[in-house]
Amino acid sequence: MDFNEKRIPIIKIRDYLIVSIQVDMHDRLALQLQTQILEEIYRTGSKGVLIDISTLEMVDSFIGRVLSGMASMAAIMDAAVVIVGMQPAVAITLVELGLEMPGVDTALNMELGMEMLEKRLNKA
Amino acid sequence: MLEIVSDKSWELLEKCPILNEYDIVKARQIVREFAKKEGMGIVDQTRITTAVSELFRNMFSYASGGEVLIEKGIIEEKPTLIITCIDKGPGIDNIELAMTDGYTSGGGMGYGLPGAKRLVDRFEISSELNKGTTVRVMKWK
Predict the structure, then answer these.
(1) Residue B77 domain-assigned?
(2) Looking at residue B1, what is its pLDDT?
């Protein structure tokens, strides 16, 4: 496996930022992504962020904390975060681990996540 | 203090050092590969991978690393994956407290040890101040 410091790409489509995490993140990479997303929200004025974790095979307490922290930080910057595509085994493990992710919106897939963000923005 | 003893019938599959953050990722992927090889289902693979990820991170954050032994053996008549994390860190002063949900001595969430325990079939911990900590988890098929 290649452990070079690769950045996880953040793509902007209309008012949204789309991030697809496709590597098993080490802790520093997870924190770096957190900062990167907040910087992109600031730079682009995006109102919503979709984070696809469908290829993540595990979410431990650290990554869980980074994801929920990211949602809270983005909320302060007036952007909503939706985490999409969590695998069933990951969901089971997260709950058994005892980790709750308060304030984190989730959707089954990218399409539903996008709908969720659109509904939210239209309401506002 | 609980002594952690190995059984001679166990087969050593791999030894991994945990010295940096990349090692945590590498070692948990190796554990998942062995879990897969042992025929564990996807949920059990995820449970053991997540549990060891918590333990590896503890070694890295609190004890500046350590060594991991991945073994397999027969426990309670079931083929079992046995992962032992050995560090020479500061040790845990109060194991009972460290095993409490939400308690943290560092910057973590406090779900590491108790959470890892819930995800495995057997959990053993032994620690001595200024000597180090050994944690062993077992997951059977």
Answers:
(1) yes
(2) 46
d(CA A113, CA A80): 11
Domain of residue A82, residue span: 10-123
Determine the distance in angstroms separating the CA of A67 from the nearest CA of chain B, rounded to an integer: 13
* Nearest 10 degrees: Cα torsion A66, A69, A71, A73: -130
Contact A59 B32 (CB under 8 A): no
| Residue pairs between chains A and B whose CB atoms are closer than 8 Å | 77
Full-model pTM: 0.92
Task: For residue A16, give how far its alpha carbon lies from the nearest alpha carbon of chain B (Å).
Answer: 30
User: What are the tens digits of pLDDT across the range A58-89?
Assistant: 999 999 999 999 999 999 999 999 999 999 99
Contact of A26 with chain B, judged by CB distance below 8 Å, is answered with yes
Q: Which residues pair with A84 in a beta bridge?
A: A52, A107
Question: What value does the mean pLDDT of chain B take?
Answer: 92
Q: What is the ipTM of this complex?
A: 0.89
Helix (H, G, I), strand (E, B) or coil at B103: coil
Enclosing domain of residue B47 = 12-140
Contacts of A27 in chain B (CB under 8 A): 21, 24, 57
Q: Is residue B1 part of a domain?
A: no
